């Protein structure tokens, strides 16, 4: 379990760095409430963006973003609304996903999908 948690932290750090390079401002990480957790909340182009990060060390179980099911997406929508409510924010919030594949040689493949439906 410790290895999974460490893999997740590494992926979230890489995702945050990727977002910052793309001009996003990170405003929250690992925000929790009774419904679950948002990995990253960022701000870009006048829009609040909730980002789900999935990280894998191998392709044995498929690409990382395949782990985001319809059920998970529905929960992320609820979490995003709850985050907005808890922080007294108005306006729209977009749901993005970032898949991280950690390569054995120390590199990572990053896939960023904006506006998950």
From TrEMBL:
<keyword id="KW-0378">Hydrolase</keyword>
<comment type="similarity">
    <text>Belongs to the UPF0102 family.</text>
</comment>
<dbReference type="InterPro" id="IPR011856">
    <property type="entry name" value="tRNA_endonuc-like_dom_sf"/>
</dbReference>
<dbReference type="Pfam" id="PF02021">
    <property type="entry name" value="UPF0102"/>
</dbReference>
<keyword id="KW-0255">Endonuclease</keyword>
<dbReference type="InterPro" id="IPR011335">
    <property type="entry name" value="Restrct_endonuc-II-like"/>
</dbReference>
<dbReference type="GO" id="GO:0004519">
    <property type="term" value="F:endonuclease activity"/>
</dbReference>
<dbReference type="InterPro" id="IPR003509">
    <property type="entry name" value="UPF0102_YraN-like"/>
</dbReference>
<keyword id="KW-0540">Nuclease</keyword>
<protein>
    <recommendedName>
        <fullName>UPF0102 protein CZ674_05215</fullName>
    </recommendedName>
</protein>
<dbReference type="GO" id="GO:0003676">
    <property type="term" value="F:nucleic acid binding"/>
</dbReference>
<dbReference type="GO" id="GO:0016787">
    <property type="term" value="F:hydrolase activity"/>
</dbReference>
